Amino acid sequence: MWSGDAPSQAGMTAQSAVPIAVRRPGAGTADVQDEAALIRSAQQGDHSAFERLVHAYDQNVLRLAYNLLRSHEDARDIYQEAFLRVHRNLNNFRFDCSFHTWLYRIVTNLCLDHLRKRKVRKEEPTTLETEDGAKDRMTAFAEEGVQGDPQRQLVSRQLRDRIDNVLLQLTPRERAVFEMRHHDGMRLRAIGEILGTTEEAAKNCLFRATQKMRAALGDFI
Amino acid sequence: MTCEQIQNDLSLYLYGELGFDAEEAIEQHTVECAACARLLERERNLHAAINTSQAQLPPGLLASCRRQLASQLEITAQTRRTPWWRRLTPSGGHGWWKPMGALAMLAIGFFGGRLWKTEPPSSNGGTPLTATRVRMVEPNAEGGVQIVLEETRQRTVSGALNDEGIRRLLLSAAKDPADPGLRVGSVDLLGRDSAASDVRRALMAAMVSDSNPGVRLKALEGLKPYAADPEVRRSLAQALLRDENPGVRTQAVDLLIQLKQRETVDVLQESMKRENNDYIRLRTQRALREMNASVDSF
C-alpha cells in the first residue's frame, strides 16, 4: 500500500487545476488537456510520456528542493524520491486535483520531513554550496571581498549571509511557504492546497517569515 | 485604514496577495502618508534584497538527477519483471536455500540428462533455441517426481525500420541500462528514420539523459533533419549547455548555428559564459557576430 508514500487526494476539488496555470502563466486549457493526456499515457505504461511529464516539472522541483535544503546532495535525494513516488503511485492519481498540486505536495512533504529531522539533529550546514563546490562561509566571504568593488562585495556578502541565517531560523513550514511564494511565485491559495492548509494559514506563515526577515535585515535596507 | 494596518499589509501588497479594495487603500494611503510611503519603499528594498538570495542550481545537477532517475526507474522495471523466486537469492539470508540448491543441482544432473535426450532443443530444425532451467523438484504421490522447468526462448525478429513492432523493440532496447552497445545500435537504427514523434522523443531523451556519450552522439545525429523543430532545438540547447562531453557539445553548437534563428541567440550567449572549449567558443562567437548579437560582454 502506498498511502503513507504519497498524499491522498481526499478533499481536493476538481477546480484546482489553477496552480498549473499559475506556475506557467501562459498555460491555457489546451496545455492542461495536453498534460492530462500525458498523464493518462504514463498511467498506461508509456515511459516516454512519463519522462515528458517529469521534464515539465523537474527543474522547478529541483530548484525548490535546493532552495529549501541548500545542499546538492539533499536536493538530489528529494528529486529522486519524489519522482520515484510519483512513478509508483501514478495509477492512483485520479485528477481530483491538479498534477502540479499532487507533485508539489509530495515534494514539500519530503522537504519538510528533511528540515524537521535536520532541526532535531541540529545539522545546519556551516558551509555554503557555491558553483565551485562547498565552501566555508567565512572563506567564501573573504574570497568575494577581494574581487571587484570590495566594499560592495562585502555588503552584498553580508546581506546574503544574513538572509541565509534568517532562513535557517524559520520553521520548516514558514520556510516552505516563503520559498514557494517568493522564489517560485506561487499563489498563497495554491501553497495552502499543497500544504494541506488554508490560504489564510499560508498567509500567516508568509507574514511571520517576512517579519523575521525585516527584523534581521533592518539596517541593510 | 490606520497606518498600522497598512504597514502590516505592505508585504502582501507587494506579493499581489491582497484584494482590489485593500490594494486601493494602500495606494491611496501611501500617496498621502509620507511615513507609510517610506516603509513601502523599504519593503520593496527588502524584497529586492531577498531576490538576491535565491540559490542558483549548479550546472549539470539537473542532467545528472535525470540520468540517475532514469536508471532507478529501469531497475524498478526490471525488478517487477523478475519472477518472485529469482528474488529469493542466497544473499537474502534464507538459510534453507543452500540445501535446496544442492538438491536442485543433483536433480539437474540426474534428470537433466534424461530430459535432454527426450526433448532436445534444436536450432536447425526450425525450433527456436531454448535455455532450460530446473526450478523445482518434488516427489509425487505415485513414487515418481515432479519437476518445474523454466524456459527462456530466444527468437529472431526481422522487419522494416518503419514496422510498428520493430520500432517498439528498438525503442525498448534504446533504454536498456545494462548494455550501452545495444543502446548505441538501437539509437543509430532509430535515427535513420526519426519521422515518428515517439522516435524523436526517444532520441531527444537519449541525447540529454543517456550516460554514454556514444549513445548521445548517435541520438544527436538522428535528430539532425529535425533541428528546426522547437522541441528538438530545446534539447540541442540543453545538450550544448549541459553535456559534459565536448564532442556532443560541438555537434550541438554546429546544428544550432546552422539554424540561424533569433531564438538561439540566448542559448549561444549563455554558452559563451559557460563554455571552456576553444573550438566551441570560437564557433559560437562567429555565429553571434553573424547574427549581429552581442559577444563583447563575455
Textual characterization of the structure:
The complex is a heterodimer of chains A (221) and B (298). Chain A is mainly α. Chain A has one domain: RNA polymerase sigma factor, region 2, helix turn helix motif (Rna Polymerase Sigma Factor, Chain: A). Chain A has ten helices and two strands; from the N terminus they run αααααββααααα. In chain A, strands 1-2 form a two-stranded antiparallel ribbon. In chain A, strand 1 and strand 2 form a beta hairpin. In chain A, helix 5 packs across helix 9 and helix 8 packs across helix 10. Chain B is mainly alpha-helical and 298 residues long. Chain B is 63% helix and 6% strand. Chain B is built from 14 helices and two strands; from the N terminus they run H-H-H-H-H-H-E-E-H-H-H-H-H-H-H-H. Chain B has a two-stranded antiparallel sheet with strand order 1-2. In chain B, a hairpin with a 5-residue loop joins strand 1 and strand 2. In chain B, helix 1 crosses helix 2, helix 8 packs parallel to helix 10 and helix 13 runs antiparallel to helix 14. The longest helix of chain B is centred in the middle third of the chain and has 22 residues. Chain B starts with a helix and ends in an 8-residue tail after the last helix. The chains are: A mainly alpha (221), B mainly alpha (298). The interface between A and B is large, with 45 and 38 residues.
Total of domains of chain B: 3
- As for the CATH topology of chain A, it is Rna Polymerase Sigma Factor, Chain: A
Distance between the ends of chain B:
51 Å
Structural class of chain B: mainly alpha
Q: What is the number of E strands of chain B?
A: 2
Number of helices of chain B: 14
Strand content of chain B: 5-15%
CATH superfamily membership of the largest domain in chain B: Leucine-rich Repeat Variant
* Residues in β-strands, percent of chain A: under 5%
Distance between the termini of chain A: 52 Å
CATH class of chain A: Mainly Alpha
